[in-house]
Amino acid sequence: MNNYTFLQARMGSSRLRGKTLKMLKEKPLIAYVIERLQLIDDCKLVLLTSTNSENDVLEEWCQKNSILCFRGDENNVLDRYYQAAKFYKADNILRATGDNPIVEPYFANRLLKKHIEYKADYSSNKSEIGSNLPDGLGMEIFTFDALERSAKESTQVHHFEHVDEYILENRDKFKIYKDVNVGTLYDCSNIRLTVDTQEDFKIVEKIFKNKDFCIDIDFDKLMEIVL
Question: How far apart are CA 92 and CA 122, in angstroms?
Answer without folding.
Answer: 9
